[in-house]
Amino acid sequence: MMQKLSMDDLNRISPEEFKQTEKAPVIAVLENIRSAYNVGSVFRTADAFLLEAIYITGYTCTPPHKEIKKTALGAEDTVEWKHFANADEAIVTLKEKGYKVYAVEQVVDSIALQNLQLNSREKVAFVFGNEVSGVELTTIAQCDGCVEIPQFGTKHSLNIATAAGVVLWEATKPPKSPEE
To answer: I need a labelling partner for 54 at 20 to 30 A (CA). Which of 9, 23, 34, 87 fits?
Structure first.
């Protein structure tokens, strides 16, 4: 019979240990996200996958914030973050630090997420856009490319927190062993 793991069984690291742990060289860039709940969810995902940081841009709200706290469950205190006036400033900073930057957006010639080739030490950032308008065209123009999550149903988009979970897992998951 299957048994759920207890909190002790999960053997999670402490916030202090988290801050000392080597992070994946992946940064999530949030561009003009309206919902603080979505922001908090991305913080929680960033904590789960040991992301290097979150770059918050434009009018996206920043911690401390009641709604971020509700969905982040403390991850807003463990994950490094920085605010930029706009995504352009964040992308310039990322490129100066050697990051490849991808917008997560549906465009002509986008890369299907499963076809994105990353190595485990490649420095990469993903820009997630506004819940209604997506990533701004001026931001897309600054990116090294666009990544699209394939979808097969009737809806044409995913919630930003869901999209971040899918993309960030793909970017940070351990490589498969040769037997798999």
So the answer is: 9
CATH 3.40.1280.10 fits 15-172, yes or no: yes
Q: What are phi and psi of 125, to 5 degrees?
A: -130, 145
Q: Is the pLDDT of residue 177 over 70?
A: no
Dist CA 163 CA 43 (whole Å): 13
Angle between helices 160-172 and 36-48 (to 10 degrees): 20
pLDDT attached to residue 159: 96
Residue with the two structure tokens 């979808």: 151
d(CA 6, CA 97): 40
Q: Report the predicted TM-score, pTM, of the whole model to 2 decimal places.
A: 0.94
Higher-scoring residue by pLDDT: 144, 180: 144
Residue 103 pLDDT: 98
Residue found by looking up tokens 């990322």 in the block: 94
Quick one: DSSP state of residue 130? Answer: B
